[in-house]
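Problem 12. The chain below contains 108 residues. Write out its predicted structure in token notation.
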Amino acid sequence: MDMVFDLLATASRWSRGNLSEISLALVGCVLVLFGSDIKGWAEQRMGGLTGALRVPAMALLVTIGSGAALIHATPWVVKGLSQFNNYALGPVLLVVLVLIGVVADRRG
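Solution.
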């Protein structure tokens, strides 16, 4: 049992050292998974615009919206994940990755 706790602590310490990159990857995965839903919602709202206005507006929305989400959501995810101790961070990240995989599998 000591070996399992040691392995969890080692994985969590490594994860804590790379938490900003891990958080950026998690936010990016969520944007990829739900980007089409957000785009569909925005297209419904902009349905009355002509094509000449709708295309640049959608490009700006996607570019600025995705960039802002990556920039502003990543620190929140880092703060949330940094609350876990060295025995919980590794399992929490594993569960989050599995959940992202399940959602991706069901949406694909």
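Discussion. The chain has four helices and no strands. Students who got a different answer should revisit the alignment rule from Section 12.3.
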